[in-house]
Amino acid sequence: MRRKIVYLLPVLIVIAGFAAMRFLSSFKTAPEKKKPEPVVKIVETRIVELEDVPAEIVAYGRLASSQPVILYSEVVGTLQRGDLNFRPGQSFKKGNLLLKIDTRQITLDINTAKSDLLTALASVLPEIKIDFPEEFPVWQDYFNSCRFDKKIPDLPAAANQKIKLYLSRFNVYKIYFTIRDLEILYEKHFFYAPFKGSIVSADLRVGSNARTGTRLGEIINLENLEAEMPVPAEDIRWIDRTKPVNLTSSEISGNWTGTIRRIGKTIDTRTQTVQIYIEVDQSEDENLYDGVFLKATIFGLNIPKAFVVPREALYEQQFVYLLEDDKLSLRPVQIARRQPDYVIVNGGLNDGDLLVVEMLQGVIPGMLARQKQQTSEDKN
């Protein structure tokens, strides 16, 4: 009996302790469960103000002279120095004598022809004096005005057919036009600069013998510089030729203004681009070089009632988030034009809307949100 009591006693103690614990726990109250606080997203916004937004086209290309000129000799003779040293890189002004070719032989030919003309006039003047005394002073004055050191003056018009017959019989007309032809040939011995520019190449040096068709060198016009730039074919419709073009270069410092002069009519099938030609407006103190690489910012046609949206604020290429009643709202928009850093929206937004202009992650429409407090610098 005593052995049974020894075995049952621990069991009874355990049962009594368990019962006491249940009894005491019935007096303990359960703690209240805390409700999770709603998550509020802090977002950066911008107030939508619809206005006319100009389309902006960016293009790249090299600057080149719109008027390169290659000099060829049309006469034979020894090359002589002009007003400056004919060397590559040499700048010149309009009207400077670049080169000349020995004129001694052509001068003698002209004077010989003038001598023949004077001889012919001396033979015809007595005939005119006898038959047409009233016309004699005109031809006498012309005879006196013919000089060997000046250009031949214009031949007076014949008063009647008989005077013309006299002039033809003594070869006055033939000799006169021969002199005119020689004077034109004489002018081809001189190479005057038709514009302000620079010498690109000099194929012959002073003292060399020039022949007909010999290339003497190449010059470029620095007054009319233009850049040829490819523009995507889809952007051509946005170009406004009346607006100036802003030009910059990473190679030299400066900012220039250009004007669109021509737009090509052919699309490059490889790149789907169209060539446009921009003339650079430059003053004399600005230093632009032929061949410099330029970036052109072309301000095109205005898009009415539009707003600029950053690329990072666009979702699935057609949606934006708005802040409405302290909640995020997803709205589809109509995009008029896409730029590298932003898009121009002309549908789906209203004046006064709060547009979220930052990239959001892990959000859904209807999520609570609050506008980020902007500093004065952010607002600017």
Relevant terms:
about 375 residues, alpha+beta, 6 helices, single chain, about 35% strand, rod-shaped
Overview of the molecule:
This protein is an alpha+beta fold. It contains six helices and 22 strands. It has helices spanning 2-25, 104-131, 136-145, 161-169, 172-187, 376-379; strands spanning 41-43, 45-47, 51-65, 69-72, 77-81, 91-92, 97-101, 190-192, 197-202, 209-210, 215-221, 225-232, 245-248, 255-268, 273-281, 293-310, 319-324, 327-332, 334-338, 342-347, 354-356, 369-371. The chain has a six-stranded antiparallel barrel. Strands 4-11-9-6 form a four-stranded antiparallel β-sheet, with no helix packed on it. A hairpin with a 3-residue loop joins strand 19 (334-338) and strand 20. The mean pLDDT is 86.
List the helices and strands and how they pair.
Elements: H1 2-25, E1 41-43, E2 45-47, E3 51-65, E4 69-72, E5 77-81, E6 91-92, E7 97-101, H2 104-131, H3 136-145, H4 161-169, H5 172-187, E8 190-192, E9 197-202, E10 209-210, E11 215-221, E12 225-232, E13 245-248, E14 255-268, E15 273-281, E16 293-310, E17 319-324, E18 327-332, E19 334-338, E20 342-347, E21 354-356, E22 369-371, H6 376-379
Parallel strand pairs: 1-22
Antiparallel strand pairs: 2-21, 3-12, 3-16, 4-11, 5-7, 5-10, 6-9, 7-8, 9-11, 12-15, 13-14, 13-16, 14-15, 16-20, 17-18, 19-20
Helix pairs in contact: 2-3, 2-5
